[in-house]
């Protein structure tokens, strides 16, 4: 009985704290994604205005796309390392992954989420700054010029061509890496453009709706 009373007391205390935070305007964001091991908060359908949800969903896809790109990049570089290349390229690929994924979430995805949720000009500015660097990095990765450790720490087109002459299997993996980096670039440019249009006032609520393109203009 004493343990049950203690649990009830703690629940009431937590509830009072949550209510106090809500009255103070502090938004509580419970972690809910991924469902099997929640580490971040994603609730676009409830947090984001309806006319902005499509862009927010695509920006989330862009975040997941970057995770896929960097993970596949590790696999490609692992193959290159196994076939005799400098092992330091593998460590670089791992660094890209362990810094790039959380960095993208905190530096541009969360600012965009807050910007669309609260209509914050500061958050929009923060998003534009770091999303520009995100796009620039993805373009660089897709090209992977032979500068840093001959560029083999990134699965881009130059390294894919080079690897094809040494190991066809690894070369194909690099070409696949190039393809997904290109897709990530195109997706990211679309997001950047749409967010910019809305921020500048060109993307009105009607224009930002998913079905806007299918509606005929007024006669």
UniProtKB/TrEMBL annotation:
Homology family: Belongs to the SCAMP family.
Record keyword Membrane present: yes
Function: Probably involved in membrane trafficking.
Domain of life: Eukaryota
UniProt-listed Pfam families: SCAMP
Keywords of the record: Cell membrane, Cytoplasmic vesicle, Membrane, Transmembrane, Transmembrane helix, Transport
Record-level GO cellular component terms: plasma membrane; recycling endosome membrane; trans-Golgi network membrane; transport vesicle membrane
Name under which the protein is recorded: Secretory carrier-associated membrane protein
Location of the protein in the cell: Cell membrane; Cytoplasmic vesicle, Secretory vesicle membrane
Membrane topology value: Multi-pass membrane protein
Residue stretches spanning the membrane: 60-83, 89-109, 121-143, 172-192
InterPro entries to which the protein is assigned, alphabetical: SCAMP
UniProt record, GO biological process: protein transport
